Every structure is written in C-alpha cells, then in structure tokens.
Amino acid sequence: MITAHAFSSLQAIEREAWNDCFPGALEDWDYIMAVEKAGIEGFEWRYLTLFEGSTLIAAATAFTTSYRLDTTVQGIGKRFTEQLNRVMPGLMHLHLYAIGSPVTEQCSAGTASHIAASERPALLARLLKLAHSDAAQLGIGLIAVKDVPSHDNDWAHSCKAAGFQSMPSLPSAMLPVPYGSVDSYLGSLGKSTRKDMRRKLRAPEPRVQWRNNIDDVLPEVMRLYEATLERSDLQFERLPPAYFTGILEQLGDRALCVLYWVDDHLVAFNLVLIDEHRLIDKFFGHDLALSREYNLYFRSWVVNVDYCIRNNIALYECGQAGYASKIRLGCTFQNNTLFFRHRNRLINGVLKLVKLFIRPDRHDPALAAAISET
C-alpha cells in the first residue's frame, strides 16, 4: 500500500533513502538540508514523499512563497510591470506553492532505484495530487512545477493530465569540456570571441584562491553578493550569509568558493559544487568598479574551465543568466518548462493571458535565442 506524506523539514527523511531517489545528484540531501538551515527569507519548505510500507519510493522538494509574476521579465517589459505594480500594489503578487526549489535549476523529483521506469508516471501523478491537497490545507490557490527539463515526458504528461498550463522557463546553460587545454577550448570559439577572450586574458590577473571556508571574509563576500544582486533582473530569492557558509560546511569537498583578490582587496567570488562528473556554478559575485579592468567574469569562466580540464570533469553547468555571453562562449542549453494552474477558474483564465506577456523569452533576444537553440 502506498501512503503520501508532506513534511516541513528534510530531517524527517533519512539521508540515504532520499539520496536513493536522486542517484548521482550533487544537489542531494546535504545540499537541500543546508538550504533549509540557511533560513532564506520569504520561503517555507515542503518535502513530498510516497512510501510503500516503510520504504521511500518517490520524493520531491517543494516550497511556498509570495511570487511576483514578472520575476523573469526584463528590459522594457520589466519597467512596464513595475509601473503597473506601483499603480495597483499587489496585482503582480500571488501566493505560490511550487514543486522544485528556488536554489536548484531543475525540478527535484525522483523515484527510488528499485522502481521501474514504467511506474514513474503514476508516482509523479501521486506527488501532484499530494501537492494539491497540501496546498489546499495551506490555503494556497496557485500551484506550479518549476523548471521541468523539457525532455522529461513523464512530468509533462502528468501535469497536462492534471490541467496545468505550460510556458518556457529559463534554460540551463551547459558547457561540455572535452578539451586538453584552455588554449584548445579558446580555439573552439568563434574567431571574434576567441580574439576577444585572448585579449581579456592579457589584462592584469587577480590572485585566485580556492577555499572551503569563508568565515573570515564573509562580510566582503556578502557585500559583493548584494552589489551583484542589485544589478540582476532575474534573481528570485535573496540568499543569507548562512547559505554560503552552510553549503561549504554541509557538502565538504563537494563545494568550494573561489576568491579573486587584487592585492588585499576581495574583488569577486564564485560558489561552485563539484564532483567527478560536473562543476556547477551556483553564484558569481563581483565588484563592478573593477570588473572591466580585470575582466572578472571572463577570468572566472576560464578558471572554471581550466579546473574542469585539469580534473577531467566533463561538464561545466553554468547557470540561468547571462545568455548572450554564454552563447558566445560555446554553451549548449537545456530547455526547461514551467507548469502551473490556479484553483480559481477565473484567475486561472487570466493567467492564460498573462503568461503570453511574462514568458521569459519575450523581452530578451539572447534568452529567446538560447531557447530556440534547444
């Protein structure tokens, strides 16, 4: 007999049982536990589980928050929605229950290793049903499944059968790294990009330091984080200091922070997750006043590519932002889909129209190109 349970803390679920549902995941029980402990403001966590007897057979992370509908809108569209929000406060905000996580790029839902692939669609449908009942108990009308990989037909069929609408979400950028050297990687780029990158790498070079503890520089890291966040149109959440320190502590040698120094001045940092298969870029923060002189973003990019080459890591997963640069730098893109529905039929009908305007590729040509490439 299968039973369904929603928990408010991951501590209610055994680490090994959870990880068995997500084999090979870097963002595993330890990562999610560190996120929970960080206490990200404005988010409450839910963990959806299916048990057969006492055995965990399927699981998904979920969260609740007040969601601003134009989170992924940029440029002219963003300025319009901000004006609209000033005139009609609260119009762009809805209370949201979402399967997935604000700090992972793709939907975290999995089944135990002994479960046959043919059983997965039915289990995903059960998780959706559990999310519906859990959201109803919490008084939340808008339910979403965040960042489902577009090749995941099981999720797509389950969501459509449950009456969910869909729209493109932010694609995940990835750089395969089959190169024997940085010079070989640069040689794979287009002529103008290759020339530009080599020119940038001749600029003054900051000192690079790989760290698994940043307690002594945490105020400076947070200063760079806040400055970078203020320049971003796409950031969904605001990460507290405990997120950065907790990830490094909880994941051990699977998480590092790369620090960039000019003399004794910290000018950039990059939090990354690492295993033998991939390097995941979680957040890059930098000092805008020095970015151009030291080409900090591109320097960091090459440092990460070089790390992958030296450690035989085949894939650099490099986030959901900066698509124009990432197209030039040779990335491929994994398309993601957002599924959603509202209990209220009138609001659900309005959202059908709103999504035509707020879909993320409508206002960003580079993002539209990244989505079309997939």
From TrEMBL:
<dbReference type="GO" id="GO:0016740">
    <property type="term" value="F:transferase activity"/>
</dbReference>
<dbReference type="InterPro" id="IPR007434">
    <property type="entry name" value="FemAB-like"/>
</dbReference>
<keyword id="KW-0808">Transferase</keyword>
<dbReference type="Pfam" id="PF04339">
    <property type="entry name" value="FemAB_like"/>
</dbReference>
<protein>
    <submittedName>
        <fullName>GNAT family N-acetyltransferase</fullName>
    </submittedName>
</protein>
<dbReference type="InterPro" id="IPR016181">
    <property type="entry name" value="Acyl_CoA_acyltransferase"/>
</dbReference>
